[in-house]
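Q: Can someone sanity-check these two? First one:
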Amino acid sequence: VWCECIPSIITAEVALLAESYWAGLTAEDGTPLWYGFNQGTPWNYTICTSTDDIGNHQCHSLPDYLSVDWLQLFVAQDPELDLVDMDQADLESLFHQSVAGYKAITDANNPDLYDFKDRGGKIIHWHGLADWQVPPNGSVDYYRRVQLRDPSVQDFYLYFEAPGVEHCGYGK
């Protein structure tokens, strides 16, 4: 299938955005805090606007409303919190506040599935590799950690990757 692409200007700002999108959230010292997205994952929070007479476009990121609401309303509990001019230290602080405040109700990270397995439990787990909401490498990491604890993991837990599949099954 032939697709005519719109000419775009890839600025240094967009290149840095792509690099950080793929790398994931890291601390100032380079320590990974959260997983990045795979190359080829759609940038659903990007807008491209015309910049010249011949139709070239320039792209800018838009905020992810779920992240904005989460950080402003749940973590900081301040709907006026300015996320645009936030520096790295403030972002790291919010990240750590989020983990400390909500880990008990949002964390599904324990790789010890022995009790589940002993009760006859079975898991079929799949993740779209173009998921733009939940980074697939979190699922990969979790499955590997379960596998390290229990080498017979495939007897009760199967993990599948779905190339080109976005969040909740959308994609190509």
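And here is the second, same format, sequence then tokens:
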Amino acid sequence: IGKEGRNIRAFEQATGVDVDLDEEGIIRISSFDQVRREIARRALEKLIKDTRIQPFRIEELVSQTKQEVEKIMLEEGEKLAHEVGVFNLPLELLKMLGRFKFRTSYGQNLILHTLEESKNAINIAHELGADVDIVRLGCLFHDIGKVVEGEGSHVKLGVDLLKRFNMPEAAINCVAEHHEDKPFSSIESVIVHIADSISGARPGARHEDIQEYAKRLRDMEEIAKSLQG
């Protein structure tokens, strides 16, 4: 903790997370940014093993850990892109794709979701004779906006990012249309949408919102009560 909490304050300032201690000695790290949480978790584990917990040492270890996580994200981004079959992407985009390792959507990890969606979409594209390369790009980047900081939906943030990197217009349209925010402009766009829906909706893929779950149970109960016997 440090004198008057100085170590905790230094750790929070260096990592950008909030730290809570409970009576059982459990340390909770909270932040909306899952990458920051991961950096904080790794740095804290190092500090506990190191035992020299003081502001200067905290800054030093957090800085080291940030570099480690940056390297991991670049490697994970390259691995994801290559597994989907997309090569020669800018380093900045690869690092952003690597953030998927630490990002979930309704409990579904974004790397696993992207791979699952891509596999389905590529098979569909081959069956229908669609442009497989555009489908690959559309699947790879459809959720990129979820790891972009800024105002607006993840669809808008993703489209703006891809335009900045001069990605093919057909691939950008796949991202722009994957939640039907605008009408489909191509068969490739429809394929990305369908594959995304399949991956997100399959049983066990995502945690279900409790209110939606309760509503579904009530609806089922009403259906049952409407029938005699």
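A (reply): Looked at the second one. DSSP finds ten helices and four strands in the chain. The chain has a mean pLDDT of 93.
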